Amino acid sequence: MAPRVGCFLLAVLMSASCEVITSSNPMCTEKEANKTYNCENLGLREIPDTLPNTTEFLEFGFNFLPTIQNITFSRLINLIFLDLTRCQINWVREDTFQNHHQLNTIVLTGNPLIFMAETSLTGPKLLKHLFLTQTGISNLEFIPVHNLENLESLHLGSNHISSINLPENFPTQNLKVLDFQNNAIHYISSKDVNGLEQATNLSLNFNGNDIKGIEPGAFNSKIFQSLKFGGSLNLSVILKGLQNSTIQSLWLGTFEDTDDQDLTSATFEGLCDMAVESINLQKHHFDGFSPSTFRCFTRLQELDLTAAHLKGLPSGIEGMISLKKLVLNANSFDQLCQINAASFPSLTDLYVKGNMKKLDLGARCLEKLENLQKLDLSHSDIEASDCCNLQLKNLPHLQYLNLSYNEPLGLEDQAFKECPRLELLDLAFTHLLVKAAQSPFQNLHLLRVLNLSHCLLDTSNRHLLEDLLDLRHLNVQGNHFQDGSISKTNLLQTVSSLETLILSSCDLLSIDQQAFHGLGKMSHLDLSHNSLTGDSMDAFSPLKGLYLNLAANNIRIIPPHLLPALSQQSTINLSHNPLDCTCSNIHFITWYKENLHKLEGLEETMCANPPSLRGVKLSDVKLSCGLTGMGIFFLVVFVFLVIILLIFSVKFLLRWKYQHI
């Protein structure tokens, strides 16, 4: 009975009073103290007084400001970026921004503008970006031209504009982006294009406009960074109209809901009379696909045929020696050899991602591409029992290889011997069957990034990562370790050059305190979404200056002797853990508050116990773990009872002693 009473009294003595410190949330969300604020969709009719005068970036969309004038934002003179999307603005008055000299971006998207005063945009000394998308503009004369000398991008998409003829005094000398997508432009004249003569390296976007005619010579001798004519029904009209122009990137793709014409060899005749580096023809259909289709493609450096309903590329294509990048994503090849890679001997980048059929890698299909540096074969249902030397024969300069999201691949010893210069290898979500006792990656001495996430790896194979002398980034997310533990000797200890290690979602229960021994160069460790407890903190003792992600684990209490292992890290995330906010964890809670500058995810780092504090942010909890008034009372009673017990015990012993003399 006495021990039970003693335990009860001790529990009472250690009872704690808890206090929650709450802070009132401001109406606007603060993203960066005193600089960046989000006030979107709050039903505001004016700028709230809670915003500091030092605000530089303000997102104020989806509120109600039918008229904006010089007093609307007069207090916020430091504004750099202002987003007023869908604020039901009808009127922009004179000198609205006259005191905002640093303002460089104004977003008026989705406002039904009726009037913009000639001087409405005066004031900013470096206004560079103006968004007037979906504002109901039908004539470019509507746009005030005062103070647009430094304008770099003008976005006019989704309006009712039928002509791109800019006002005579419209300054274009610094213009880099002019966006007319989804308007009603059907004809482009020489006068329209001549108005853009002062602009250099301009990107023009006509996507969603059904261009039916271009005046001959309109683009003669003109140079553009990019032109986009996506969704145009007749590409031959576009290409003939662009004769004698120079374009770095020409986007001629179409969209799912566009009923355009099938492309033939005749469609591309205009391409022979222009200089283009890159063309995108995504989602088009080809009629009579043959080597002659590519007759005017010989000067191309990049060709994108994504989702072009292709089952193969014709053999016998000639003259494509300048092509460096070929994109064949989302087509329907049965075998990789059907792309006839030998027709493109200078390729450095090849993408066959998301093939619509199960893709057979075949043998030696790419052996003529000895200059290939980047190869993406992800999401293509590739399956191979013996990968990958025969399939990737003669690719000595390959640096990037993506085989992620495929079917099971069997890897033999030195599986990538034909690609000794690989720097990045992505095998995520591809079941790897490692058949050899040694590492299948052992000849990849230049490999810097290896993604093995969700590969169903045998993590007990300590030789799996041997000889990866320069590996900096390793992702083994979603793989499982024996008994849910990373032991003292493990596959990670052979990669001492690691800087980033991702071990999230590995069902980890514990980590041996010497598991990361020898990984002193590591700066980023992600252990989120496991079941680790506070006792595993000792494993971080050999590591310093880490970004350490421990979010969504099973950490309740972190013992005081393990806090130094956390203190030596640079950034720590402990969010979404069932943290104990009682006096049993007072040392950690005290440390937490003293190190808030090192912690991220503060809003999601909350108490789980006791029930009265469940859901309260750890930074808002104040524990008082000294003796309470009730505790002092019980202490006095406890001491009094102990004294009485001692007196009776002494009397009993003395009486017993005298009785037995």
Give a short synopsis of this structure.
With 661 residues, the protein is an alpha/beta fold.
Task: Walk me through the topology.
Blueprint: H1 2-13, E1 17-20, E2 29-32, E3 36-38, E4 57-59, E5 67-68, E6 81-83, E7 91-92, E8 105-107, E9 115-116, E10 129-131, E11 153-155, E12 177-179, E13 187-188, H2 190-194, E14 202-205, E15 213-214, E16 223-228, H3 235-241, E17 246-251, E18 275-280, E19 302-304, E20 325-327, E21 349-351, E22 374-376, E23 384-387, E24 400-402, E25 409-411, E26 424-426, E27 432-434, E28 449-451, E29 473-475, E30 485-486, E31 500-502, E32 510-511, E33 524-526, E34 547-549, H4 563-567, E35 571-573, E36 579-580, H5 586-594, E37 599-600, E38 607-609, E39 621-624, H6 629-659
How would you characterize this protein structure?
- This protein has 661 residues and is α/β, with parallel strands linked by helices.
- 10% of the residues lie in helices and 18% in strands.
- The chain has six helices and 39 strands.
- The protein has a 25-stranded mixed β-sheet, with no helix packed on it. A three-stranded parallel β-sheet has the order 5-7-9, with no helix packed on it.
- α1 (2-13) packs antiparallel against α6.
- The radius of gyration is 34 Å and the shape is flat.
- The protein starts with a helix and ends with a helix.
- GO terms for molecular function: lipopolysaccharide binding; lipopolysaccharide immune receptor activity.
- It is a single-pass type I membrane protein.
